[in-house]
Amino acid sequence: MEIKPSPLPVRLLKMPRQVLYFVGIPIFFFLFMIIYRPFGSEDLLCLRYGGFAFNVAIITAIIFLVLVITRLTMWSLRRVIEWRFYVYMLWCIGEILLMALFVSLYITLISGRFYHYMDVVPKAMLYLSGVTVFPYVIFFLLLKSSILEHPATGDGGLLHFYDDKHRLKFVVDPTQILYIQAEENYCLICYTDGEKLKRFTLRITMARLEERCAPYKIVRCHRSYCVNMSRVKGMRREADKTNLLELNVDGVDAIPVSDRYSSKVSEML
User: Fold this and answer.
1) 112, 48 in Cβ contact below 8 A?
2) How many degrees, rounded to 5, is the angle at CA 148 between CA 144 and CA 153?
């Protein structure tokens, strides 16, 4: 069975984190180019209008403007697109390509058309990808590590649920979720809305939801159930040796715990 990767946390795409990219990457590019002048860039950028540092500064400004536009677009689409890792990588490659196209246009024009546009594009791609790959990777790893270590539980972070066709269907604060119950190819999400108890049915398998919900302390406790451990007030053992979890909401049936998951659940209580 094919296991598809989980979507990236939406908090990774929030605006304060996008600012790190469209400010940090241009600064890194400018300093790296000025200090190291890699890939023979000095020959290409010492044009008749302005010296090397001047043209690097203009190119840095182009990179900044491209990143502002693309990162604002990414932020506006954060709840529309399912941002899996490969989608994010393709977006970053597209950003670099867009930078290269505009930078190549600038170099072609400022050189008095001494360089042919299509000859400059591969070189611009080489310079930009070779230099910006470092901040791209570093920022992504730092932000993802920070988010995984401190998952959102009530701090404004929302849990996004997608169906089996990767369409966004349901968004909820993870602290509102009580439990998730599997019913064949569907999952029933039980959650609270103020004092009301509500349910949402989603066409997806429990196996896919389990990995998605784990960072929010919503864990598998039974073949047919995941439970929000932050909503559990206790566990009891019945005469027939069945373990049941009692939730902190009136009118909700106790959730069964199978032997397979009992040790893990007990450790989290």
Assistant:
1) yes
2) 125
